[in-house]
Amino acid sequence: MNQKSNIIHGVEAVKSRNIASQDDRVRCLTLNFFSYKMLIPNAAVAEVTELSNIQPMLGAPEWFGGLMKWREQDVPVVVFEKVMNIEASKPQKYRRVLILNTPNNKGCSPFIALGCQSIPSLTIIEEARVTLSDKKSEQATHIKLDGEEYIIPNISFLEDRVSEVMVG
Known about the structure:
Elements: H1 3-16, E1 25-32, E2 37-41, E3 45-50, E4 54-55, E5 64-70, E6 73-78, H2 80-83, E7 96-101, E8 111-116, E9 121-126, E10 130-132, E11 140-145, E12 148-153, H3 155-167
Parallel strand pairs: 6-8
Antiparallel strand pairs: 1-2, 1-9, 3-7, 4-5, 5-6, 7-8, 10-11, 11-12
């Protein structure tokens, strides 16, 4: 697997070996937010579901949206715009949530939920369409897909932050 494929797959997908790449294509979900576009490898997504009641957690950071019941368990909700220090949309604008598998299973939750403002679209990304962006952050990998900027969230980073809140 070469460097570009690793960018698309993400460290989490490669670690979990959930992606069997027979060529230079990866199935991903694309999401449009007000101020950016997100790309998430399919292997990282457990489910896309309707937004349900979120119970706030007292004393939690602003990016921690609270806990949502999903399949009879509490799933932490992350407001990704706040993690990235981007102007956040109002929570009621979220129509769906992505339930993401946590790669390291730190014990607090095997899943993290991300609110999304649009219905995710399934797309197949070919390696030749991807280049690294000049932008850098520990919260996400920044890429250009067909010349457009996208971010791929660092799920391990999110899992670490959520674990700190849940255990702390």
